[in-house]
């Protein structure tokens, strides 16, 4: 079981940031209270992503969850290399979440992107416990993902989250001022990219996000794997 609080603040890494700099950003953000680091590097080879995953595991040092974006194979390889990788976040075009669950085990964290009624229906059809959370967005237009679907806004996110029993994490253009309203709308957490990766002071930004997320107490105490 994963504590719901452990999904509250996600940092999704930005592969346009040089990796040496990214390591420092992640170290600062984790020290300031980020719950999840999702390593996303779509422009690199599997071998390079494996190297980064091992390095990130060392930097994080079990202080928060480490997920690999898209690549179940890299998550498995990183574990084989001795890294602490807690799971994956998958897009709709990636391997099925059932496969990820089978390969990574019952205690892994498996997240799945969902931003349409069809995606929600597909998640509902899964065996309970296949996915731990849905990444739902975008909330606002964002340059991080130029081909994003229409923005949901706070109200659209709330309607989506209310229609599924799977915990929902809001992502895409999330601002600090959005965190409390999103939590009030039922968000198990929020995920940001450039808000931390592009910040002059990643630690201060992470602390602010942590504080905003903690200001709204959710009823849910646990998330089933």
How is this structure best described in words?
The protein has 9 helices and 10 strands. The protein is an alpha/beta fold and 225 residues long. The protein has one domain: TIM Barrel (Alpha-Beta Barrel). Strands 2-3-4-5-6-7-8-9 form an 8-stranded parallel beta barrel, surrounded by 8 helices. A two-stranded antiparallel ribbon has the order 1-10. Strand 3, helix 2 and strand 4 form a beta-alpha-beta unit. The longest helix is centred in the N-terminal third of the chain and has 15 residues. The C terminus is likely disordered.
Report the CATH superfamily: Aldolase class I
Number of domains: 1
Report the sheet-strand fraction: 15-25%
* Contiguous runs where pLDDT drops below 50 for at least 5 residues: 219-225
SSE-based structural type: alpha/beta
Give the termini separation.
Answer: 6 Å
Binned, the helix content reads 40-55%
- Please count the beta strands (DSSP E, at least 2 residues each): 10
Q: How would you write the strand order of the largest sheet?
A: 2-3-4-5-6-7-8-9
Helix and strand succession?
EEHEHEHEHEHEHEHEHHE
The number of helices is 9
CATH topology assignment: TIM Barrel
CATH class annotation: Alpha Beta
The CATH level-2 architecture is identified as Alpha-Beta Barrel
């Amino acid at each position: 079981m994963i504590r719901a609080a452990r999904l509250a603040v996600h940092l999704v890494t930005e592969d346009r940031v040089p990796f040496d700099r990214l390591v420092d950003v992640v170290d600062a953000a984790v020290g300031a209270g980020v719950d999840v680091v999702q390593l996303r590097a779509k422009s690199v080879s599997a071998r390079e992503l494996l190297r980064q995953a091992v390095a990130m595991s060392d930097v994080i040092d079990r202080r928060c969850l480490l997920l690999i974006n898209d690549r179940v194979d890299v998550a498995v390889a990183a574990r084989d290399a001795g890294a602490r990788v807690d799971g994956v976040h998958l897009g709709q075009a990636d391997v099925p979440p059932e496969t990820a669950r089978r390969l990574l085990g019952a205690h892994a964290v498996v997240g799945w992107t969902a931003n349409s009624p069809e995606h929600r229906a597909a998640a509902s059809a899964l065996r309970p416990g296949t996915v731990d959370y849905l990444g739902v967005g975008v909330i606002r237009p964002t340059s991080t993902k130029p081909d994003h679907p229409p923005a949901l806004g706070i109200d659209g996110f709330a309607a989506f989250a209310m229609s599924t029993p799977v915990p929902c994490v809001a992502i895409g253009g999330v601002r600090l001022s959005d965190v409390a309203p999103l939590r009030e709308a039922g968000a198990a957490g929020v995920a940001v990219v450039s808000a931390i990766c592009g910040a002059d002071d990643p630690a201060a930004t992470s602390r602010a996000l942590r504080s905003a997320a903690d200001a709204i107490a959710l009823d849910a105490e646990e998330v089933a794997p």
